[in-house]
Amino acid sequence: METTSFRTSCLASKVALITGGGSGICKAITRKFMQYGCDTAILSRDEQKLQSAANELQHETGRRCLVAAADVRDYDAVSRAVDKVLTEYGQLDILVNGAAGNFLCPLEKLTYKGFKAVMEIDAHGTFIVSHIVFKKVFKYRGNGIILNISMTPHYTGALLQTHAGAAKAAVDAMTKHMAVEWGPYGVRVNGIAPGPIGDTVGLDRLNPFQSNTMKKPTGALEVQNKVNNLTTTKFTTHTTNHNPTNETDNSASPAEMMRMLIPLQRLGRTDDVAHSALFLCLPEASFITGATLVVDGGQWLTCCNFTVLEPRSMSKWINSAKEAQKSGVKMLSSVPPTLSKL
Fold first, then answer.
1. Are residues 86 and 235 in the same domain?
2. pLDDT 10s digits, 85-112
3. Cα atoms in the Cβ-side hemisphere of radius 13 Å centred on 169
4. Is 109 exposed, middle or buried (0-12, 13-18, 19+ CB in 10 A)?
5. Are 128 and 48 spatial neighbours (Cβ–Cβ below 8 Å)?
6. Is 6 inside a domain boundary?
7. pTM for the whole thing?
8. In what order do the strands lie in the sheet containing 94-97?
9. pLDDT digits (tens, 9 = 90+) for 24-60
10. Is residue 135 part of a domain?
């Protein structure tokens, strides 16, 4: 058992349903809940993948993990899955809405089919599962906890993620509306918005510096070329405790490029998100509702769209950076890479 500030039995006698719990961040949340005494059910379309994950989690933790296969876009299928959970456990205390779909694509090349799929999985799915669980369980028991897994691209209008940003903006809105409408029933609703998480496949697929992710769909390559031209040949390791050399590194990996733009100077871990989810489900968080906790090392505060702007569009930034260097002010890692070593 890991060493943390949480009581080892803080979720004892609780049952949680986690959509998307068979992989990635949501699998880590499922594991964390089970490590702290919670029995779980994981829901997604791929029953075989779910069963493999459930077997692994049960072996690791000694807790129960039920497979509830369903497509979150199918109201009736989700309703049956929730019934299965209630039949198996006789209760349901926590819902984590983590099922999601995403990919990188320029807006001009984004098809309606692709946009619709992400909206339906993320936004419609969050509504459907929450609606069913509230009506079947939380409304009548007088309490319950819902966690909606979000993200941050819509905070800044991030490139290549109009579909995901729109879907997660809807999820964030639902977090607030659900918190207000269902609060009188004793239901708390909060969100978690993870940033770049190093131990997930999503870091490679959704990293704008990762050329392999940019080859599909058609049209994304043009944007990647701009990113490459303005970053990889000018990327530096800034003078920090983690990077004391302040030397140019033209061979920085995509993950390293991403890390250097995060104020805390590291990629996130799935445990960072899982611990945040655990806290929001505890009595210590009993007066928190309608909030979305950003777990990204400060990335969204500093990671903007400079990488695809022409240098002439950044004259004010460049002048400020030059003045800062003349006066001896240390350049922070949050400064766009194109401004380093001016």
1. no
2. 999 999 999 999 999 998 899 999 999 9
3. 12
4. middle
5. no
6. no
7. 0.79
8. 65-67, 39-43, 15-19, 94-97, 144-149, 187-194, 292-295
9. 999 999 999 999 999 999 999 999 999 999 999 999 9
10. yes
